Structures are given as C-alpha cells and as structure tokens.
Amino acid sequence: MASHKLKILLSVGLGPWAFGKGGAEAFWRFVDRAEERQIDSLWLSDRPVSPIGATNFVLDPLIALAGVAARTRKLKLGTSIYVLPLRNPVLAAKELATVDFLSSGRMLLAVGVGNEETREFAACGVPKNERGGRLDEAIGVMRRLWHEPEVTHNGRYFQLDRIVVDPKPLGPMPIWLGGRSDAAFRRIGRLCDGWLPSAIRPEEMADGIAKIQAVAAEFGRQIEDDHFGAVLTYYVDESLERAKARAAPYLLRRRPDFPPEEFAALGTLDDCTARIRCYVEAGAAKFVMRPTGPPEAIFEQLDALAELQRLVA
User: Are residues 262 and 187 in the same domain?
Assistant: First the structure.
C-alpha cells in the first residue's frame, strides 16, 4: 500500500534512560531541543517495574509528560506503549484527560498488553493471563468516560455505577495499539484507531496493515490510512558501517532473529531517508524515531532527526 500522498511525520521516542549518568537536567535539555527543532511529538515508553540487573530505567510516562506539557507549548505528548492492562481504566482515563486538558489537547495515546515478564503483572496485582481481556474492556470503558456524561458499566473486570470523569479530553483521543501478533491485529481491527508496532520490518508492516484492514472490514470498520505508524530505532552517522558499529550493542536484544539494519534506520542521512521510505511504501505514515547508540550522541541524533523530517516531508 503506497502512502506517498499522506503527510509523513517523524517524532522522537525515548525508551530506557538515554542520557547515561546525566540527571534530570539532561532530559529537560533534550525536551527543550526537541521543541526548538520543531519535532512534532515526544513519545515515552512505559515499564512500571525495572528488569532485574537493569543499568538504566524508564520514566513513568504520564508524570514525565505532564512535566513536558508545562515546559513546552507545541510539542505533542505520546505514550509508546502505555501498558493499560496494569491500570484501572477510571484512573487512567482521568490522568490522560488531565494531561490533555492542561496541554491544550496535545496528548496522544498508544497502548499495549505489556511484555512477557510475569513478575511485573504480579507486582501490579493483575494476572498475566487476563491482560488481553482487561485491555479490551478498559479501552471501551475509557472511551465512554471521555464521551458520555456518566457511565454505568458491569463488565468482567470493572464495575462502574454512574461514574463521571472530568475534565474530558479537549478533542478526540484516538487509541492506537502496539504489537505484531495476530491477536494484536484482531484487536486493532475490532477496537482501536491505529497501529504503532516496534522492531518491525517493512514487509511485516505491509502484511500487518492488510490483516488489520481485513479484520476491520469484518466489523464494518476501516482504519484511516494515516493511522499506521512504527517505532523505528535510528542512528545517523557518516557511513552505514560506522552507524552499525555504534548502534549494534544497543540493538542486539531488540530482535535477535534479524540483523538490526532490517528493523532500524542506520547510516547516513540518505541511508536513513531511504529506509524510512521503505516503510512509507509499506503503508506507514507516522514514525516514532527512537535514537540509539552511546549517550553522548543523543543530542546530535535529535538534530539529525530534524533533518530527516525535512528530507522525507
């Protein structure tokens, strides 16, 4: 599916702490620079429980994005990916709508079922085998809370008796979903507004879009063409070889079944532009570009992203 008529947007995403030994000030300098470079949006990952032995950490996305909202005026605020099954949907709806209200409607939402770490679900009091059902029900509950004056709901996991959540989001808040599984494709086709997978190859992107639209058609729906995107790791350098060498140590765990260059954008500006266009030809229009490589390169990679946006626009 070619998407050359669609507006292609490159945003920046952060997963585990990307600033080495730098403290909070490094994060705020990054935010300021993203605003100065007119990056469309900043997307933060979600990992409530740090992995055992981890040398870095993941910020709580909504708390961090609330701070970003106060510090900026144009930068949109996204979650990639918010683990909704770990949250009560009433509290999640309230928190998300609050950030949207205070940021003048800049909140963007992508959700998912979470990783395979059973300890994280147990620590949050959620049986892992319930995550899919909880996610489905939570999506419906949050949508109703955002659009209806009051909500009564008697579901398998959540019971609401005339519950009101205010403020409402300032505009529609589409719910995108991550993941690359057939279950994810069916969930998007049935319930969601867009798809934002990570560590995906262009041919897998095209195949997933076709499957999602087929499911959507079964339910009398269609996902908008510009509601397909990807979280794409990138590293820009003077050559492909140098970029691969500097990025490889940070990418090996992302997807061991394929070499990094098959699911990332690496190399010169021209190399990375060409790679992004492969995804565009596969049907993607929105990209959360996640810089990789050593911490000391994080700011130059943000500058390179601004140039990549110019080249692919």
Answer: yes
